[in-house]
Every structure is written in C-alpha cells, then in structure tokens.
Amino acid sequence: MFPTLTRMTITPVAGYDSFLLNLSGGHAPWFIRCVVMLEDSAGNTGVGEIPSSEGILAGLEQCRDLIEGQSLRDFRQVLTQCKARLEGNGPEERGRQTFDLRVAVHVLTAIESALFDLYGQHVELPVADLLGRLGRQRDEVEALGYLFLLGDPDKTDLPYPKPPESPRDDWDVVRCQEALTPEAVVRLAKAAHARYGFKDFKLKGGVLSPEAEADCIRALYEAFPDARLTLDPNGAWTLDQAVKALNPIKHMLSYAEDPCGQERGYSGRETMAEFKRRTGLPTATNMIATDFKQLQFAVALNAVDIPLADCHFWTMQGAVMVGELCNEWGMTWGSHSNNHFDISLAMMTHVAAACPGEITAIDTHWIWQDGQRLTTEPFRIKGGRISVPTTPGLGITIDKAQLEAANRLYHSLEVRQRDDAMAMQYLIDGWQFDPRRPTLVRD
Ligand code: GKR
Ligand code: MG
C-alpha cells in the first residue's frame, strides 16, 4: 500500500558566502537556495534543494495541485504532469551568466528529489539504487577541490564571513581572505587538501588575464604534480586566447572547462571543437551542452569530452542518463555545482553514485559553505571522497531549527536572485557583466 502525498512545503533559504570571483562578478556575502519538502501519509518527508529565484518559487507553486493528494505509487506520472505544465510556460534559455537561469528544469529537479527520497524510504532503498538503468555503481564518490580567486572583503562594507577567533585550521582563515596570486591559490589548495584530502583541483577563472590564470595553474601543478587540474573561465576567452594561454600548460591540465565560447558567428560548440583540435586537450562544459539536444550537437562536433551534468539543471534522472550515454560513447561524466547546502550535496552524491563507468571527480562548492547546514548530519568529504549512504532515500534528516534560521536569514535580505555585480562594484566603480571580458580586466 503506497502512501498519499499530503503536503508540499517550499522554503527559500539563505546562507553566507565568501567574496568568490568569477566571470559573473563577485559573490555577495549571501547565497540563496530553495528547499522543497514533501510529506506523505506514512509520516515520511522527502526533500530537494535547488537555486532560488522568484520564477522558481512561482514555478513550484504552479505544480502544487499536481502533487498534493496523489499516491506515491504514481510519482513518475506526477513528474510527467509537472514537466508538461512547466513546459507550457514557454521555452527558456540558460543565458550567458556563469550560472543557469532556467526555471522549469530546476523546479522539476526539486520535486523529483523529494519524490525519490520518499519513494526510497517507502521501498527501503537509497536513491542511488533507484536512479538510472543500473542503480548504484559505487559506494564512494570522488569530489574535487573547487578553488576560487577571492576579492578583498575589507574593500566592502558587506557582511562577509571573517576568520574565526580560534580557527580549526588554515582553511577557516584563507577562505575569508583576498586571494589573487598564484601563491594565494596554492595556499587555498593546501588548506583545502589538509582538511578534505582532495586529489584533484579546479580553479575558477574568467577573473584575471588568461596568462595570469595559467600562472596559477603552473603554481598548483608545482604543489600538486599528481592532481587532475582544470581551469574554468566560463567561456570568457576567445579561441585564440584560450589556445595561447593553455597550449603551453596542457601537460599540467587534465581537461579545460569552457575555455572559449561563441564568437564572430561561431557557436561555443564550434569554438570548443576547434580548441580541442588545436590543443589536443579534452574539454568539459556546463555551458554549451546543457540539454540533450545541445549534447547531441556537441557530440556531433566532437566539442566536449566531459559534460558536467549537474542534476539541478538536468534533473537527477537526466544527469544519470547523461552518465549512461557517456559510458556507452567513451566520454566521461562529471557534475557542475553552484553554492549549495547539504541537501544538494546528498542529491549530487546519489546521482554520481548511479553513473556507470569512469566518472571524473564531482564539483562541489560545499567547502565554502562547510559549517552551515540544514540537515542533522551533512555528508562529509574525507580523503577527497564522499561515502554513499546505504540508508533509504537520500539518507538525510532536515534539522528544522537550522532550516528556520536559514529561512529567517532569507527574509531578512532583499536578495531574490543571484547578483554578482553588486559586490564587484565595490572593487570597480560601475562594474558590469561582460561575458567576453574577465572580471578584473577592465581597461
Ligand atoms: O559559483 O561563481 C560561481 C561559478 O562561476 C558558478 O556560477 C558556475 O556555474 O561553478 C560553475 C561553473 O563551473 O561554471
Ligand atoms: Mg564551469
């Protein structure tokens, strides 16, 4: 006997963030997310976490009557109906920011996650065992150390987190301080390695000149010669700039993430294919293969080796489908991330655990949020790995007090959409986003 879905609760939340720089600007001291909780008549609760925006909150509301009152047995039909209703809102585009601005796919993922969590609890299986054709493929998921260049928080009057008076380790200190040089990047990597044991690192680029960012990779390579390294300028560079900056360091990189994008009448998929031909470097993307149609074109052009199929914008089942295709086609699955809480960490872990074949270490921003939590026991990164739980569902329990506090923080702010330009304007007067110009290159 399957329980009935009794109530959906939508809770926008906020957490604190450091002054992380990227092509979109500088992260504000807060990031916002949205938590969806579904209760059923058996007394269980399923959860999902996605980015938040007014469009996303409205999209979730739009699906409420398709969910509440339905049987958990029909959870796939519920998802199909929600998808159809959201598609009725019209086509959407990812946009040119570093982050994905679509509504429908995010909304669907939050509902999907909560439904899989409930279904898993009902049939007493972890979500990883339910996703995809093959179910769980691994008991541990590798994560990479996601490094950023950081702005100086003291150049703003914004409430960025400060190093604690008695820091637990160097990571507690460095994640709150300016980092704009190769030495500072290596210090971040060493501190993250000491706490989390990462074997691989990704540096977010699109901030300094391509050559200055290549120098950061040189320094990382010297410090961690065995790590899989990558650099991600979010398509800011021209094809020629990307080849010039990365060719000399290609032996240090395992792959290049979105090194170039659309230019002079050529699509990003075309320039990435040309980049691969000219450098021989494998490429990864979370910008030019973000749905199945785009993936088809990317594969046809041989533009991408590693689609970073973040479940938040592919759906959990969609991300695993990409993993299955990668496995069949000799490509490598990976996952992108944005700032997130521990519910998303659980979602990404289950998805990665269900992808067959060799996958690359998943992205996670969690190290920047570590210490903040919405669940009673966030998954931990140890030795660069996250254990996949064997408990039913997502294997997490919401900490109601923490959730309420994060919701209060959200309501105390006026932030309703991610905006990285606001903080950047403290560093450069009148700064505006330009998808083709690194954030600190403005002469
Ligand atoms: O958090 O600033 C950031 C990143 O730039 C993020 O917005 C990107 O979506 O992590 C992302 C990426 O790999 O492009
Ligand atoms: Mg990326």
Automatic annotation (TrEMBL):
Mg(2+) binds at D232, E263, N286. Substrate binds at H27, T98, Y146, K202, D232, P233, N234, N286, H336, S337, N338, H365, R418. Its cofactor is Mg(2+). Keywords: Lyase, Magnesium, Metal-binding. Pathway: Carbohydrate acid metabolism; D-glucarate degradation; 2,5-dioxopentanoate from D-glucarate: step 1/2. The active site is at K204, H336. InterPro entries: DgoD-like, Enolase-like_C_sf, Enolase-like_N, Enolase_C-like, GlucD-like, Mandelate_racemase_C. The keyword Transmembrane does not apply. It holds the Pfam family MR_MLE_C. One of its GO terms (molecular function) is metal ion binding. It comes from the Bacteria. Its EC number is 4.2.1.40. Belongs to the mandelate racemase/muconate lactonizing enzyme family. GlucD subfamily. This is glucarate dehydratase. It comes from Larsenimonas rhizosphaerae.
